[in-house]
């Protein structure tokens, strides 16, 4: 994978990554939510010394909603940069430009989707 430059595709996590870690916990009873989310956050904090830093990276298919969420599709570039830079590194701005051209109404969105630039900023 390292033969392809980080900027040639949207997926930049190619060079120097030995492993990808997906943290996941599943439970059935809604009353246990705080317990299990707390467990996951403690595990995440415990693993912090052993994972990427500066910037801390994230893989889009392992979404981490603790990084932030879209505001009903009206999220600013600055707000979305919090998770966008972790998922897409230096490709994030370019991807926002493409999204603005291809989907200016921001129809295709999810909790952490790429936003569109407001009409005054491009």
Write the layout of secondary structure elements.
Layout: H1 33-47, H2 77-88, H3 92-102
Distance between the termini: 31 Å
Percent of sequence in beta strands: under 5%
Q: With helices defined by DSSP (H or I, 4 residues minimum), what is the helix count?
A: 3
- The secondary-structure element order is HHH
* Alpha carbon gyration radius: 16 Å
The main sheet comes to: none
Structure class: mainly alpha
Number of strands: 0
Query: Which parts are unreliable, with pLDDT below 50 for 5 consecutive residues or more?
Result: none
Oligomeric state, counting identical vs distinct chains: single chain
Q: Overall mean pLDDT score? A: 82
Shape: flat
Helix content: 25-40%
Describe the fold and architecture:
- The structure is a single chain.
- By secondary structure, the chain is mainly α.
- It is built from 3 helices and no strands.
- The protein is flat, with a radius of gyration of 16 Å.
- The two termini are 31 Å apart.
- The model has no long low-confidence stretch (mean pLDDT 82).
Question: What descriptive keywords fit this protein?
Answer:
single chain, 122 residues, mainly alpha
Concise account of the structure shown:
This protein has 122 residues and is mainly alpha-helical. It is 31% helix and 0% strand.
């Amino acid at each position: 994978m390292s033969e392809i430059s980080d900027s040639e595709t949207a997926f930049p996590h190619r060079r120097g990554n030995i492993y990808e870690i997906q943290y996941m916990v599943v439970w059935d009873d809604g009353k246990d939510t705080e317990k299990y989310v707390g467990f996951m956050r403690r595990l995440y904090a415990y693993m912090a010394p052993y994972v990427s830093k500066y910037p801390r990276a994230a893989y889009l298919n392992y979404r981490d909603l603790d990084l932030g969420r879209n505001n009903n599709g009206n999220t600013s570039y600055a707000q979305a940069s919090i998770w966008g830079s972790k998922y897409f590194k230096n490709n994030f701005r370019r991807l926002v430009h493409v999204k603005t051209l291809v989907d200016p109404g921001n129809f295709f969105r999810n909790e952490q989707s790429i936003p569109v630039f407001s009409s005054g900023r491009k």
